[in-house]
Amino acid sequence: MSKTIHSVASVPQTREDLVRSLVGGERRFHELPKDLSPEEAAEIRRQALEEITQTPLENIAHHSLDVVRASHRNCENFIGVAQIPMGVVGPLRVRGKYADGDFYVPLATTEAALVASTNRGCAAIREAGGAVVRVEDVGMTRAPVFRTSGIIQTQQFLQWIQDHEDDLRRLTESTSRHLKFLEVRPYAFGTTVFLRFRFDSGDAMGMNMVTIACDRAVNELIEPATGVPCVALSGNYCVDKKPAAINWQEGRGKRIYAEVLLEAPTLHRYLKTTARDLAEVQYRKNLLGSIAAGSMGFNAHYANVLAAFFIATGQDPAHVVEGSLGITCIEPRGPDSVFASIFMPDVPLGAVGGGTALDTQREALAVLGVSPDPERRGEATLRLAEILGAVVLAGELSLMAAFTSQDLARAHEKLGRGELPSRPMPT
Amino acid sequence: MSKTIHSVASVPQTREDLVRSLVGGERRFHELPKDLSPEEAAEIRRQALEEITQTPLENIAHHSLDVVRASHRNCENFIGVAQIPMGVVGPLRVRGKYADGDFYVPLATTEAALVASTNRGCAAIREAGGAVVRVEDVGMTRAPVFRTSGIIQTQQFLQWIQDHEDDLRRLTESTSRHLKFLEVRPYAFGTTVFLRFRFDSGDAMGMNMVTIACDRAVNELIEPATGVPCVALSGNYCVDKKPAAINWQEGRGKRIYAEVLLEAPTLHRYLKTTARDLAEVQYRKNLLGSIAAGSMGFNAHYANVLAAFFIATGQDPAHVVEGSLGITCIEPRGPDSVFASIFMPDVPLGAVGGGTALDTQREALAVLGVSPDPERRGEATLRLAEILGAVVLAGELSLMAAFTSQDLARAHEKLGRGELPSRPMPT
Amino acid sequence: MSKTIHSVASVPQTREDLVRSLVGGERRFHELPKDLSPEEAAEIRRQALEEITQTPLENIAHHSLDVVRASHRNCENFIGVAQIPMGVVGPLRVRGKYADGDFYVPLATTEAALVASTNRGCAAIREAGGAVVRVEDVGMTRAPVFRTSGIIQTQQFLQWIQDHEDDLRRLTESTSRHLKFLEVRPYAFGTTVFLRFRFDSGDAMGMNMVTIACDRAVNELIEPATGVPCVALSGNYCVDKKPAAINWQEGRGKRIYAEVLLEAPTLHRYLKTTARDLAEVQYRKNLLGSIAAGSMGFNAHYANVLAAFFIATGQDPAHVVEGSLGITCIEPRGPDSVFASIFMPDVPLGAVGGGTALDTQREALAVLGVSPDPERRGEATLRLAEILGAVVLAGELSLMAAFTSQDLARAHEKLGRGELPSRPMPT
Amino acid sequence: MSKTIHSVASVPQTREDLVRSLVGGERRFHELPKDLSPEEAAEIRRQALEEITQTPLENIAHHSLDVVRASHRNCENFIGVAQIPMGVVGPLRVRGKYADGDFYVPLATTEAALVASTNRGCAAIREAGGAVVRVEDVGMTRAPVFRTSGIIQTQQFLQWIQDHEDDLRRLTESTSRHLKFLEVRPYAFGTTVFLRFRFDSGDAMGMNMVTIACDRAVNELIEPATGVPCVALSGNYCVDKKPAAINWQEGRGKRIYAEVLLEAPTLHRYLKTTARDLAEVQYRKNLLGSIAAGSMGFNAHYANVLAAFFIATGQDPAHVVEGSLGITCIEPRGPDSVFASIFMPDVPLGAVGGGTALDTQREALAVLGVSPDPERRGEATLRLAEILGAVVLAGELSLMAAFTSQDLARAHEKLGRGELPSRPMPT
Known about the structure:
The structure is a homotetramer. Chain A has helices at residues 15-24, 38-53, 58-61, 67-74, 114-127, 151-163, 165-173, 207-226, 245-250, 264-271, 275-293, 302-313, 320-323, 359-367, 379-415, and strands spanning 4-6, 12-14, 78-95, 100-108, 131-142, 145-147, 180-189, 192-200, 230-232, 252-262, 297-298, 326-327, 329-333, 337-347. By secondary structure, chain A is of the alpha+beta class. In chain A, β3 (78-95) and β4 form a beta hairpin. Mean pLDDT of chain A is 93; it is low at 407-427. Chains A and B meet through α2, α3, α4, β3 and β4 of A and α2, α3, α4, β3 and β4 of B.
């Protein structure tokens, strides 16, 4: 408890001294001596925080993470962990190109009923023979913003960019062997030019490597050659972690499609609903309701399932913002069946990097059989995306059905004894 | 390891039998005997999952949560936890009405640099005397959707709703002593009517209690009295966990404002930037870039800070979607200073319920001094919201400054030796 | 041709001299002597323009407008008119509260087929017994923008506004006997505050009188009392002649609903279509297509009919922008019928002022029986709005049907001989 | 007045008989005998309408249009014209590639002050040496919508489209010598596929020829070869006459840029304003106001000038909807000057077809020197677009300045005697 620690300035300090200095404010939490082990630093910060706030942090302290990795690669001023309950749904039958079979899917959530409800959707999909899933690897984007003197310089600048696409490709691809240059898409007006770079980043979500590549392109090639200054390496035309039309139109990360045909017995047994009621809720809620609300999410709750999946598998939870966009369709087929689909145009996702190497997250990925293979670049993440598509579909089906069976059913019971007005069903 | 467990059907089964039945698929993960303790059930599921997927789950198993609570109130089919690294920033000086003083703020994230960067923003705010923060408690919403026969019935229906507001208030408030009825806002066209109910839910985020209240209002009052059927209890005009204009205009949860005046020395010392450069990035990125992108987020990265704060404090991470909306302003004041502000119109937040009672999250809330007091209804959450506002502001300042100091500075170095074109600064 | 004209400076000038001075550039087109009659001034400008551009303008010269009125109240630097072809559709059976009966509707357009197509829609509506139409008079809005020192002053300012609503009402209503104050709706963030004033402007579209009222309120009351400066009398939160979520949510001008139930024989005889095909086009085009496009218009072509109606009846054609917003619904009823409706939340409209007093426009209004009656304030414009709703519905029905009968029918012919895949109809 | 007319059925009918039959409702307005001359038919319809509605239509009757053309190519059930007052602004100095010089621009409007205000903007631009204008010819679009059985058929379908682009080009270009195929852009989800065809249509606005080309492509190539049915030839992903993100991102028609640098003396003399005030209004109104409103128009009033220009020159006034989108920038340059620009991404425009051949509109085009030349395909319309860009810029400058000089100035007067709080200018 009082072993001697050597500070940067080589003045031996006891752990207690360091805690005191944090508590007293002489030292900030990020100013602990560099030669402390990450574990020691975490303990010192925690102890100081406990004293300052008079709060025992024993649960936050309770974890099994590799602190060296976590504190260096994921979280500065590390003091411990938030523990997020993890449940499992499945088996979920996925009929993708990279994920083809039955999967148990770990979901980390604090929202009661989410796991149970999604699990019910998995059962319905399983009964229906599985969800067909396809994924397009749109690629990761970053859009530096530049300042010109006006339209004439802008046009010259864009011409230069177009003429030097090969140079841009060479330079950016040289910054990482995982990166493939795909495109530069410009947008310009007044004195402002955005260049939306798009890259295939293989199994990585790619935000960081793409930023580095753009930085090099801007600083070593574009600015020196054109004299047009870059104002910010990210000009919000990328656009990261904000809902936006550009990502809806052009995609970002993975673009995911999943679908299933549900027949009457499955609807009845697993979802306690009918084709007609499901289609009615789809029409009034996912279509008209989102239209009325001016929403960019024409779905019931992609964000819920996404957040639970993202936290379990080490994705960036702020990307749930982008993943909340998309369109659920539920269409009658024949008299009693429905075709149900989800469409997510903007899902950043990775099987390496970020939180994926953390100990619990790595286990969750292993449960899904997701492990990058250099021989099969990008396929681990495509597999992850396909499973995600199927589980989001499961979540949609179950919640949509809940609205019909709980609410419409009840409505029918209570109102329906003959006196229900003839129903002008849209379906 | 092989102790006898009594199943629902009173047939004694060993734990090993149960694992076998899960592995073999005879039993689903949610079908374990009810008389198993939650801990036992978790172990059995985990063991089965390990066998099925050939994946050791020892880290997921490593936690200190109260399993009874977690598995009943947060996460079905519980198998353990995702551990999310937690760091701390601060002290952050907050000048709110409910949070007034210096705070250390726990953030749970897997994104390298986020904590360090936000911490830098905290230092700048501290140096500037603190962030002024104000919060409006807009209230939680839920919007059932109804089907009428057309405009004439719709108008009668809406007239009925208007005439019975007192009845709706009485009934909905009777469903929870935490709930105060605020408003019903209708939106109607064709044969569809949305009623957006809005409630003050005190210290709870409120989604669940509001849903229950609406359910009662619909089923006991509105449908019986009007004969107009409710199609779904949530008609997406609420709108939950999707970006939407209605929430932008009307607000949802808390509407948060935070601001600070930064003078040249603070900008220079803590943020390595100048007023001019910050304002330039603000203009091209947060305003023009988001306009070009068709985004609803006119900010740098609210979602990042929000996600880390939400996970640490037990909020619903899917609500990051709504919290990503908003407008950052950075405006020159005098020759060398800037006024910086954030505005978040749509932040669902709670100090009780959901994930806030989990062991690590409870500790994080305690670090912030957030603990509900029945005598001061709603104030714990308002305090939480004020701290959130200040930390989001810190995150914005630091990232915005990073663009100027790293990128503009470098641009200046490389291009700037006299040949930089005269800068048409927007500021 | 060379009669003497007395200029402002009392130096007699011949008409020829004035033309010369315009042609030579010594005098601008708006600098003709004030004592010229409007007709003479128009002739002089036209003659000069003919010489300058070597273009005979005999058709532009050919009109029957009261030049005094047109040049003073509608169009400076008057040189003549644009002649827009006017056709008539009907009889259109309207079942509104203010327009109840059969109407012939003049439409001024240059787009071939628009009148014929809309006329077909009128026939279908007539056969179906007429369109039920209802209109809400939302009122006209104007939103000055103010600058404060930050959130604290903003909250004080908004409190002041709330406390002085009666004063604001009194002052604004004193500026015109046609104006009724309805509401001030604030929106604020950073150092910016918008106050969206909303007024009932009776039979006038109201933009001008509302602007004058706001000007008085700002300059005589708000600024002097609060010291908070108004930056612009219109802060684009009004919002005039731009598509915007705020108008979608809150409405502006008139909010119009029209609907009709069409049975199989009517669909077949007048629209050459079926319920199933119409509903299919509605689903893929008006709902999914507009969702995919990120559009605010979930309709086929409100703007076309609106533009033709607006030009014929003297409305402001730039308001077509706002009128293009809205939602068409076409829903199956029973096996062979459809319920069709239009919804326009944002239609500025007037029966007095603007272009309504021009000679041809006045005649078009008279054809519709629209003439303001001081005893029945606002009703003339409500009548106009109801007729507009019905004719827009007619236009939608006909165009939507055209897609099905021309295109689907052809598709059926060519593909349909047995080998058409079973149709996954959304309906 | 009672000369004998031969009806289709060869039964001689007097004009009076025909009027009677219209008035009595035995005959609809579009059912007059085909052998009537268009003039006679117009007179008969007008006379009937006068009787039915007891309204003299002498002004509507007063016109100089070629009735044969107008009634066949522009407006069915022709009865006369709406006369829209036309004024002229200028000279406007345009520095484009196709329009380089001084122009007088005819504007047809009923909104008082629009011409005078725009004229003031022209003076400021003239004084500043002219507006630099550039136009990109994005092309006209049409997006048929198709129905597939799901993602697998969709992918096959899109692959087919991609593989047959040359065939699509050949077929579509064969439908008109004015058409050049540019691109097919797909958007797909669920069972729905949109193909957004884009064509260069030369001097024509192109909507009709593009529709015909798509019809041929769909019916002769795509449907027969793929078996995938087209649900509607326009699937609203085009998107015509509705505000939409896709057009913002991808452009439609012409994409127009115009800009000017205004120095202090010009600002003072012509616009009665200062750089600082203009930039302040720009910031609070065009940027923050439109952001707050959820608008797609970040400008003061493009739609006003556009509507007046469109009506004068025979454009489709419903396209004002699309033209209302765009971004005005006003940025300080040095201490006292501003750089001002407009950007319109979505302006359908033509120099032939539609209303451009009408007699008054033809004259207005001639005033602008716009006349298509087969040798210089598309250049007449590009010239028209450049002039439009400059005049829209003139309109913006003048209105923006009006806000500052009238309102800010007055505010300054009344409040400003020393007690105005130090202004936190954004500029």
